[in-house]
Amino acid sequence: MHHIFGITPWQFTALAFAALLVGFSKTAVSGANTVSLAIFAAILPARASVGVLLPILICGDVLAVLTYRRHAHWPTLWRLFPAVAVGVVVGTVFLGLADDGAVRTSIGAILLLMAAVTVWRRRAAQTPEAESEPTRAARVKAGSYGVLGGFTTMVANAGGPVMSMYLLSAGFRKLGFLGTSAWFFLIVNSAKVPFSAGLGLIDGHSLLLDAALAVFVVPGALIGRAAVHRINQRLFERLVIAATVVGGLQLLLR
């Protein structure tokens, strides 16, 4: 095992824990996988970590869709996809040009920005603004979150916080939030595979490591599924924010 990316058994254990967290985040606390992202970026080269994490996230997405598929809100998804596609293309160009340090710094900055926006939004609007917004404002919001979500998911696999902000601000409760997120990320992450392979981020080496780590996603998803109904909504949102801040700081301070 250790010859792939020169990983020690201790580092493999940390990556396995991160994979378990991916499963948990996909079925319970959405922002928790920003912690996984930080662990992957701490152990592997930043660019390589993006490619290794992607197939693991897709495993988690499949489990989340199987669990929450009935709860998705499709009109919200269709409103987001065109802008997300633009963000993914911009992110691909950035990854093609940026070195490891730039990728890591941008990942950290993106995560902290996301956390700040969430806290600010929650202070500003204690009441959810579900579908009462005028359509123009709703379209602009979907567009800006979509482009940012596409960019952050391509560059850092960190679209989770952006989508969390968008869905929380649109007044989604836990199950609608999880179902809509599940379908969103299954579709978007699958679409990113050819881009990542084209950039050389996914190859035989990275897939070998994925094969070893994917096993750990399943218990994480099962734990999340068991825990989700016990997690209070406010606590749920606070955990998402806290996890994002920890992940972002860890990357910026390296």
TrEMBL record:
Q: Pfam families this protein is in?
A: TauE
Question: Sorted alphabetically, which InterPro entries does this protein's record hold?
Answer: TM_pro_TauE-like (IPR002781), TSUP (IPR052017)
- The membrane spanning regions, by residue number, are 47-68, 80-97, 103-120, 207-228, 235-253
> According to the lineage, what is the superkingdom?
Bacteria
Keywords on record: Cell membrane, Membrane, Transmembrane, Transmembrane helix, Transport
Membrane topology label: Multi-pass membrane protein
Q: What protein family does this chain belong to?
A: Belongs to the 4-toluene sulfonate uptake permease (TSUP) (TC 2.A.102) family.
What is this protein called in UniProt? Answer: Probable membrane transporter protein
